[in-house]
Amino acid sequence: MTENFKAPEGWTELDARAVDTARVLAVDAVEKVGNGHPGTAVSLAPAAYLLYQDLMRHDPTDPTWIGRDRFVLSAGHSSLTQYIQLFLGGFGLEKKDIEELRTWGSKTPGHPENFVTDGVEITTGPLGQGISSAVGFAMAQRRERGLLDPEAAPGTSPFDHFTYVIASDGDLQEGVSSEASSLAGTQQLGNLIVLWDDNEISIEGDTSIAFTEDTAARYESYGWDVRTVDWTQGGTEYKEDVAQLKAEILEAQKVTDKPTFIRLRTVIGWPIPELAGSHTVHGAKLGPEGVAGLKKAVGFDPEQQFQVDEDVLAHTRGLAERAAAAKAEWDKGYQAWRSANPEAAALLDRLSARELPEGFAEAFPTFEADEKGLATRAASGKVLEALAP
User: Fold this and answer.
1) Domain spans of the chain, in order of start
2) Where does the Transketolase N-terminal domain start and stop, copy by copy (predicted)?
3) Does domain 5-326 have CATH number 3.40.50.970?
4) In this predicted structure, what is the pLDDT of residue 205?
5) Is the dihedral of CA 286, 292, 296, 301 positive or negative?
6) For residue 23, what are the contacts with CB-CB under 8 A and spacing of at least 6?
7) Please, what is the Cα angle at 57 between 314 and 150, to 5 degrees?
8) How far apart are CA 85 and CA 97, in angstroms?
């Protein structure tokens, strides 16, 4: 841990060491395979750890639990940001999986892939796709709640959860993210919280050559709740104020009528000596000197690779125990809902089993041939209306 680290209340030295463990694992993994994206995984380690260990409601032993919060790594190129948290939290990845990053047949492909790695909600990688899909996640959650538990007060339904996103500069340059974000504001998706890693570096280099708009103002115009956490202190010094970030996220959770956009100003690759803030750390291995420099900066042995202390791992794997308590509390509300809403519960069971309703085939409209014909889009629309009135 460096001197410029402000932990949230309740964190211990073990939490700080776990954050630095994540940084070291990231650079070792990229160094071993010879390619990858270490920079963001190093500088965002505190934010990712905060989400996974402190804020998100999830269960490492049951990654598909319906009561969980969802996490989308829109910055899919920084897959290590997520993989290392899945390892630390005990979602099914082990240290050998981190060592096998970007190798054929591993559980840790270059970009996160659903159905390959437990805990990955959706395959991401193409810039802008993750944040856009997360808007769909948030809309789906609201649809599910409205279908199954529409009368519950905000925050009291077993179907209430948040979708969290980590997005990069490159994500927000893409047109699709603009369109989806505008829709999210219009739809008032208060269950969506986006962390923008504003480090002013993308694949082509410094964003000053391609991306200089006032992004926060753009999101305000979309109707989002916009917040800023500046770890660069306006460019004067670097301080990883994780406590402030946690406070802003907790406030964002209270906003029910707007999605939240948190601008997190960071320096990519911090605290790697000489290389932090450079395009070099975005998508290439650091080299022996860079790796050793980081390890020395955070108090790790530069001669060791993939160092994970037993007490640190035991601490982070305690997430399962904490999750079990939260899940048990959630289950009380869920069982009460099932008892009070047997028809809705039966609908949920059918949907979960991916079974179509009885007689669905009879609901299809038929179209008689005639000289005028019918546009395909019109026919498709009538079929969809029949299936989901």
Assistant:
1) 5-326, 359-389
2) 15-357
3) yes
4) 81
5) positive
6) 41, 42, 45, 294, 298
7) 165
8) 12
